[in-house]
Amino acid sequence: MKAILIDPFDQSVSEVDYNGDYKEIYNLTDCDTFDVVSLDDTNDIYVDDEGLLKNPTRYFRIYSYTTNQLVTLAGKGLILGHNDDGETIATTLNANEYAGTVSFLPEGYAHDPVLEYVARNWS
Fold first, then answer.
1. Cβ(77)–Cβ(62) under 8 Å?
2. How far from 55 is each of 52, 75, 110, 111, 118, CA to CA, in Å?
3. C-alpha atoms less than 13 angstroms from C-alpha of 41 in its C-beta half-sphere
4. Can you say how many angstroms the Cα of residue 65 is from the centroid of all Cα atoms in its chain?
5. 42 and 82 in contact (C-beta within 8 Å)?
6. What is the pLDDT of residues 15-26, one digit of tens each?
């Protein structure tokens, strides 16, 4: 099925074939664990969950229509779609058109991971 691979190391956005096996996400994104960021009602981007911790790493920015904000991500990203049942489907986006919405951050850019704890009073 059609997917879009964003590679900040060679600064490319290309269409790739995804075979439907979640293990292929690891191969395409060069990661051991992945996280999912919603881009719109149908499309999500899979990214390296440990991307901020790797050295060297490269970053890119992409717009999420779900959150209405620009999102900075580390490592490679794989865009796939999902249906109403939550099953993975081919992306509805076009790689050539979507390439214009991705910006690659310069080599040497650093984004420190932030972990925030919020205390709540549940009483």
1. yes
2. 8, 10, 10, 12, 29
3. 1
4. 14
5. yes
6. 999 999 999 999
